Amino acid sequence: MFEKTTGRRALYLASVTLCFLPARAVLAQTAPEVARGGVSAGMQAEDITVIGTSPLPGSGIDRDRLPAATAILTAHDLQGTGTADMLHALDSRLAGVSLNAPAGNPYQPTIVMNGFQASPLQGTSQGVAVYLDGVRFNQAFGDTVNWDLIPDLAIERVAVEGPNPVFGLNALGGALNVRMKNAFNTAAGGEADLSGGSFGRIVAQGDYAARRGDWGFYVAGREVHEEGWRDLQSTDIQSLYADLGWKGQATDVHGSLDLANSVLNGPGTSPVELLRADPRAQFTAPNQMA
Predict the structure, then answer these.
(1) What confidence category does residue 271 fall into, taking pLDDT thresholds of 50, 70 and 90?
(2) I need a surface site. Which of 30, 69, 149, 228 has the fewest CB within 10 A?
(3) Of 162, 160, 159, which is closest to residue 173 (Cα–Cα)?
(4) Which residues are 209's β-sheet partners?
C-alpha cells in the first residue's frame, strides 16, 4: 500500500552553520632544508583523510584513528555513470550496501546498509540516519528519507559511517553524512548538462560558484522529466540548492537553502500473473507522491 499525498512543496533546508577551528600549539624547531618542488629533503608528503566524528561541520579526525569501518565518496566518485548519482554510487562501490525499489520509482528507492533500511515509504523500519551539512535529513514523521530532494550535482562528498550514538536515533545500520558544495570547496565557475533517453527521459542540470574576497556563493539546480515504461509511471522533479558563505582565518559561516518540487508516480508491486500477461500493467493506481 502506498500513500497518496498531494501538493507537497518542499522548502526543505535552511541552515546556518558556524564552524570554529581550534588553534593548535606548534613547537619551535629548526626549519628543514627544502628541496625543489616544496618538499623537505628526506621527507615525503602524506595524504591524510579526515572524517567527521559527529554530524556537525568542523568536527573531524584522521580516518585511520577512528576505530570503525568508514568510507568516503567524493563528487568524482559519484559520477561513475557520467552524471552524479549518490545512491547508485553507494550501491556499486561499497560492500554491505544495496538498493531496491518497492515504490516503483527510480528516484524513491530504499537503501539497505548492513541489513538496515532508509526508505521514503511510511511504515518501513528505518535504521539509517542521513545528515545534510549537519542537519538531520530524515523526516520528523516516520524517519523517512525523500531522496529526490537531494540534488546529486551539489554533493561535495558522502561519508559512510557505522553505528554511532552521536548520529541520533535509528542509526543502527550506520549513517550517511552528506556534505554539500560551496564556493570554498569547489572550483570557481560553472557547468551545465543536458541529457535525454528513452521513455521520455530529459535531465537538465547545472551549477555555478563564485568568490569575492572572504565571501562566496554557490548555486545548483536540476529538472528531471521521465515517462517511465510502466503504465501510469512518471517523474517530474525541480530542485534548487544555494549556499552563501563567509570564510575567515578560523571561522566559516554559511547559510544554505534547498528548494524542491516533485511529483512521482510509481506502479508499485504487482502479482506475477498480471505481469506475465502485460509487463507494463499496474495493479493499484494511482500511487503518487507529490
Answers:
(1) confident
(2) 30
(3) 162
(4) 189, 218
Does the domain made of 9-17+51-289 have the CATH classification 2.40.170.20? Answer: yes
The mean predicted confidence, pLDDT, of the chain is 80
Q: Is the pLDDT of residue 118 over 90?
A: yes
Are 241 and 257 in contact by the 8 Å Cβ rule? The answer is yes
Cβ contacts of 196 within 8 Å, gap of 6 or more:
202, 203
The whole-model pTM stands at: 0.75
Residue 196's identity, in one-letter code, is G
Longest Cα–Cα distance of the chain, Å, equals 80
Look-up: residue for cell 560558484?
Answer: 209
The CA distance from 166 to 54, in Å, is: 6
Could you give the CA distance from residue 146 to residue 86 in angstroms, rounded to a whole number? Answer: 13
Please name the residue that has the C-alpha cell 518501513: 124
Query: In three state form, how does the secondary structure of the chain look?
Result: CCCCECCCEEEEEEEEEEEECCCCCCCCCCCCCECCCCCECCCCCCCCCEECCCCCCCCCEEHHHCCCCEEEEECCHHHCCCCCCHHHHHHHHCCCEEEECCCCCCCCCEEEECCEEECCCCCCCECCEEEECCEECCCCCCCCCCHHHCCHHHEEEEEEECCCHHHCCCCCCCEEEEEECCCCCCCCEEEEEEEEECCCEEEEEEEEEEEECCEEEEEEEEEEEECCCCCCCEEEEEEEEEEEEEECCCEEEEEEEEEEEEEEECCCCCCHHHHHHCCCCCCCCCCEEC
C-alpha cell at 194: 543536458
